[in-house]
Amino acid sequence: MKLETSEIKKGFKSLHSLNDKVKFLKDKFKGEECYILTAGPSIKDYSSEYIKKKLKNKLVISVKQTYDLVDDIVDFHLLNPFNYRVYDYKKNNPIVVMVNLLTFQRFTPKSNEDLKFFIDRKKSKKQFSLAQTKEFEKHLLENNLIRPFGPGIMYEIGIYLAIHLGVKSINVIGWDLGSKNSNEINRFYENKSFLKKTEQKIMNLSPNFYNLIFIRFINMYNVLKYFLGKNHTLNNPGITVDEAVFISNSTKELYNWLLSKGVNLNIISNNSMIDKIVPRKKL
Prior knowledge:
The structure is a single chain. By secondary structure, the protein is α/β, with parallel strands linked by helices. The protein has one domain (3-178, 242-268). The chain is 32% helix and 13% strand. Strands 5-4-3-2-1-6-7 form a seven-stranded parallel sheet. Strand 1 (33-37), helix 3 (48-55) and strand 2 (59-63) form a beta-alpha-beta unit. The longest helix is centred in the last third of the chain and has 21 residues, at 207-227. The chain is globular and about 45 Å long.
């Protein structure tokens, strides 16, 4: 973790509103390179030790479970209620950023966030999403603290946090998105258990049944396991049909918008559905 991050955490102690904290963050890492770690399977192309070595003293933003891979170098840890689990910050003390639903907050025990943003639940549908509207400028943190529905945490806060911090380039590891032929979005930490295979079949055969019935069963089961002492992943979000393709189709516009802001976007993945206009690089 960078020394500046510890100083920011100290500065937060005298600030009480989200607005004041966001203003305090403005351009704190101006002109630096930023690395965002996301949970696509391709992040496992590199060992944790290699990532830590390459990103030492870099600005690192970690999405959800990627924190466990590189915990001691993370500056910002991004969370939302979905696929949520409790994290141990004893080894490191990153700035924790949570994005939740404004009127229906999910169960997120021990989140201990430093910054908490909200999405308007009335606009958490595909037609209002950032991937659909492509109104990227509208949702800069200096313009709007209410976050857009992405779908996905990268669109909701990840990209915008990096811009707000003043970085000159955003390098994203593991932003694979998914598959053109499936509603499934794979994550590096998931196993291929019988339950997981059943879940994948149901989401592709009947998305409505999956979202309305199957997810409720899975989420109740996971909450039960949590209260039985298992640090289990909570709040399966359900699916947005063709979500990977939907997001992918908006990334050309995202890339060009970032260039207009003086920010370069690079993808570190051999298996990403992000538009081919976005440069690929190795770590």
